Each structure stands twice: as structure tokens, then as C-alpha cells.
Amino acid sequence: MDSLREKKGYICDMDGVIYRGDSLLPGVKEFVEWLYRENKKFLFLTNSSRHSPKELQQKLKRMGLDVDESHFYTSAMATSKFLSNQSPGCSVYAIGEPGLFNALYDSGITINTVNPDYVIVGETNNYNFDNICQAVKHVFNGAKLIGTNTDLTSPLEYGIVPACRALLMPIEATTGRKAYYIGKPNPLMMRTGLKILGVHSEDAAMIGDRMDTDIIAGIESGLDPILVLTGVTSREIMEQYPYRPRLVLNGVKDIPNA
Fold first, then answer.
1. 99 and 147 share a domain?
2. Strand order of the sheet with strand 110-111?
3. What is the DSSP string of 157-191?
4. Residues 35 and 16 placed together within one structural domain of the fold
5. Hey, which residues are catalytic here?
6. Distance (Å, rounded) from C-alpha 74 to C-alpha 120?
7. Confidence bin at 232 (pLDDT 50/70/90)
8. Which domain holds residue 237?
9. Same domain, 188 and 176
10. Tens digit of pLDDT for each residue in 30-89?
11. Structural domain ending residue among the three candidates 147, 181, 215
12. pTM, entire model
């Protein structure tokens, strides 16, 4: 724990680490107060593409947590940055929520339902058979398939729900094409997070609730991998993986000094 507390930078997942659905998790306020008090650099890096940084800031504020907008980075932002670097001025057919569309617009990427260069899929509550058919048609016509993240599930107050990779499966199965996934554990997102923090990987910790995204991202990117049990992973699930976090905590509430 002393080694963790001495880190200069912290990259934290959000769903299952900071909040669950619309409820702040125990000890999060004290953890954030500790980060500010100790002058730590921190970034809330989320695989969710639903919300913009401003929306995430306002969501936390409604829960009683005041964090500056600059501390948020989403898979939607990482996806739009990737596309604008790969193919400036490209067009996309997108399935997702406003956070994804806003990030695409901010990068000069346009929506195209006729002959898009890419099909982009993120989390959404408006997923239907027509979405799938349109995406399949565009992929068969040559559009490249992109997923904002690899999460199969997402934790809400009432339980576990399908997430991005689950929504992509029908499109992948029908077309025979595999999507390229941008979010964690893709090193692209982790390197951007470290650059935003301005710290070396050896001086940073990755705190998350998922073995297959957060913990493997920390291990492969050289960050201190810390698992919290407030999300989708239990100790029993953790044992199914061939790699381990360095520490397993009940939650971020365990991190501040007593």
C-alpha cells in the first residue's frame, strides 16, 4: 500500500470504481479529497463512450463530487482521435450515445448513412435490428468496423447489462469481420492517458474493476495494476485469469491514509 500511495499519477476506471449506475461508491469522496490534498495527478479514464467529459463532470457533481472537466478521458475521445489521425475528414455510420457523436463532431468526422468509411459501435440504449442491418450492409460495402471498447458487460445498480463488445457480436458474426477496439486494454488509450498526466508509467497506477481491460492494460503498459472489488470482478473470477493485479482492494476507500 505504501508503494501505491507514493505514486505520482493515478488512472482510474469509473464504472464499478468511482460509481455504480447513478450512485457514488463508498469512500470515493475521501479518495478524491486525498488525491487533491496530496497533489496527485489523476485521470478518470473510462471505456464507456456514452458521455462527454462535461456530462461526466456534471454526473459526479450531482452525486456530491466536484472534479474538474480536465480529469476525464473517454473511449469516444480516443476513437475520434484514432480516426482523425488515420483518415482525416472521414465519415462514419455510428451506433452510440451523444458522447460518441460529440467526440466525432469535435474531430471533424461526419455522419454518413450512405457510404461511410467506418462503422463505429459504442454503448447505447437505442440498439435495434435496423441498426445491425445498416451496419452489416456498410461493412459488406467496404466500411471498416470499429468498437469503442472491448467491454462485454457493464455494472448498473440493478445488475449486469450488455456492453459494447456484446453489441458488436452480431455484426462481426454476420460479416465475418473482426472489429478493431480502441479502448482499454489498447495501449493507444493508456499512452494518451499517461501523456495527459505527464508522468512515466513506472510512477503511475491503474485502478480498475475488470481483469480483461483494466488490469491487463496496467500490466502491459507498465503501470501498477490495482483491482477493486466494487465492480464486476470477484476474487473467484480473478482466479480464472493467468495474470494477477499487484493489489486487490475492497474499493478505492482503502487507499487514503487512515
1. yes
2. 110-111, 91-95, 118-121, 144-147, 180-181
3. TTEEEE-HHHHHHHHHHHH-PPPEE-STT-HHHHH
4. yes
5. 13, 15
6. 15
7. confident
8. 2-47+184-254
9. no
10. 999 999 999 999 999 999 999 999 999 999 999 999 999 999 999 999 999 999 999 999
11. 181
12. 0.89
